[in-house]
Amino acid sequence: MTEPMPGGRRRIDRVLAPGYLDGLKSLPMDEVRALRQEAEQEETDLSYLRRMLQGRIDLVRAELSNREAGGTGGSVLEQLPEILRDEASARPALGRHLTLEPSRAGEYRRGVERVVADIDISDVTARTDAELESALATLVDYEATVSRSRKAVQQVADECRKEIARRYRTGEAHVGDLLAEGPPD
Q1: From the CB of residue 140, how many other CB atoms can be counted at a distance below 10 Å?
Q2: CB neighbours of 32 closer than 8 A, spacing ≥ 6?
Q3: pTM of the model as a whole
Q4: How far is CA 36 from CA 15, 65, 156, 157, in A?
Q5: Helix (H) or strand (E) holding 160
Q6: pLDDT of the chain along its 185 residues, tens only?
Q7: What sign results for the dihedral spanned by CA atoms 113, 3, 43, 96?
Q8: Distant-in-sequence, close-in-space partners of 100: CB < 8 Å, separation ≥ 6
């Protein structure tokens, strides 16, 4: 779902296509900005998907940890606010501040639900330890795939940002041009 396919028609396929940034230095500024915007939107969508997966990973880990402790930590439902808090996570900080809203939240939610349904963790307390370990491995693998794609998309967006910054630094572009264009879309 999140790995690019050569010749594919999805946004991720375009953004990570080998020729996406060809001729970047000679493209008009509005085209460079459009490329950057497309990459930033894909990054936002991948970040959303990644966070959904991380939440499910945290839930499965919490249930396994609770079982290991003999069930003395209370039910996963009771622990839910603590489990889903970013501060409670052993993960590093999420990284970039993204100002865009996910554009494919429903599509990604359905995709994650398919993965979750395939491994049936809607009721973690009804699963055996082996089933939860298997589900956890599947979710962790999927999250790693999403993270790799997200990192590649970030690199594309960064190249566009560098080109825009270079143009301002060298005088090829001027802040006054932005004011003449009006607010960005």
Answers
A1: 15
A2: 24, 160, 163, 164, 167
A3: 0.77
A4: 9, 42, 8, 5
A5: helix 129-170
A6: 678 888 888 899 999 999 999 999 999 999 999 999 999 999 998 998 898 899 889 989 988 988 888 866 667 777 777 777 755 445 454 455 556 676 666 666 666 667 666 666 677 888 899 989 988 998 999 999 999 999 999 999 999 999 999 999 999 988 877 666 656 55
A7: positive
A8: 40, 41, 44
